[in-house]
Design a protein that fits this description.
By secondary structure, this protein is an alpha/beta fold. The chain has one domain: P-loop containing nucleotide triphosphate hydrolases (Rossmann fold, 3-Layer(aba) Sandwich). It is built from ten helices and eleven strands. It has a seven-stranded mixed β-sheet with strand order 5-4-8-9-3-10-11. Strands 1-2 form a two-stranded antiparallel sheet. The chain starts with 6 loop residues before the first strand and ends with a helix. The mean pLDDT is 89.
Length: 214
C-alpha cells in the first residue's frame, strides 16, 4: 500500500496505482498536460528522471526553465536527470528487457541515489518506432515492468505520440498500464490486464507469426 500523499496528474489524482500510459497528439499537448505534474515534483523534493527523444534535450530544458524550475540547483543536488531514450533503452543497438528492468529497479524509490522520497519518471517512447522494429518488445516490457512498480511508490509516465503507433499497438499498450491519459484526462484503465494474464495471451498471438516468418 502506498504511504506517500496522492499525486496530482492530468485533472485527477494518482493514489496507489502509478504506472501511466499517456497518449498525446503533439508535443504541445504533452507539455500542457504534464508540466504541472513535473513542476509539483520538483517543489516536493522528488527526484525527476526525464527520458526524451534525441531531438528534445535542449528544448526540454528550455521548457522546464520557462516553467520556473531551477535546473542548475536540481542537477547540483542530483534531483534532476535528463537522458536520451535511444541511449537509455538501447545498449550496443539492442533492446534488452532484463537490463531495463534492472535499470528501473535502481531508479525506484528507496534505491535511487540521493535519498529522495520517490521518483517521478517521464519516458518518451517513440524510440521504439524511430530506432528500429522494437514495438513488439516494448509492449511485452511495458507489461513486465509492472512487477517493478508494484513494489514502489514512484510515478511513472510513459508517453506515446498517437501518430507514431498503429491502432492495434495502441490497444496492446493500453492493456499494459493500469492508468491511462487520453484527451488530457487521467483515468483508471478498464482494459488493463496484469502481466500474468496479458503475457501468455500476447505470446500465444505471436507464435503463429514466428512460425510463418521461419
Amino acid at each position: 500500500m502506498k504511504t506517500t500523499p496522492p499525486i496530482r496528474l492530468a485533472g485527477a489524482r494518482l493514489a496507489e496505482t502509478r504506472h501511466v500510459c499517456a497518449f498525446f497528439n503533439s508535443e504541445e499537448e504533452q507539455y500542457r498536460v504534464l508540466m504541472p505534474f513535473i513542476k509539483e515534483g520538483f517543489e516536493r523534493g522528488h527526484k525527476a528522471v526525464h527520458v526524451v527523444n534525441p531531438h528534445q534535450p535542449d528544448t526540454h530544458r528550455q521548457r522546464l526553465s520557462a516553467a520556473g524550475i531551477d535546473l542548475s540547483s536540481a542537477e547540483r543536488i542530483g534531483q534532476f536527470e535528463l537522458r536520451v531514450n535511444t541511449d537509455a533503452y538501447l545498449c550496443n543497438g539492442q533492446f534488452d528487457q532484463e537490463r531495463m528492468l534492472s535499470v528501473f529497479e535502481r531508479l525506484a524509490s528507496g534505491n535511487a541515489e540521493g535519498g529522495f522520497p520517490l521518483s517521478r519518471i517521464v519516458c518518451h517512447m517513440e524510440w521504439a518506432v524511430d530506432a528500429g522494429c522494437y514495438v513488439d518488445q516494448i509492449v511485452e516490457f511495458e507489461s513486465r515492468v509492472n512487477a517493478v512498480w508494484l513494489h514502489h511508490e514512484d510515478a511513472v509516465i510513459c508517453t506515446y505520440n498517437l501518430a507514431k503507433f498503429s491502432g492495434d499497438v495502441v490497444v496492446d499498450l493500453m492493456r499494459t498500464h493500469p492508468m491511462i491519459i487520453v484527451g488530457g484526462i487521467l483515468q483508471e484503465n478498464p482494459f488493463f490486464l496484469p502481466p500474468e494474464e496479458f503475457l501468455p495471451e500476447l505470446r500465444a498471438r505471436r507464435a503463429p507469426r514466428a512460425v510463418a516468418s521461419a
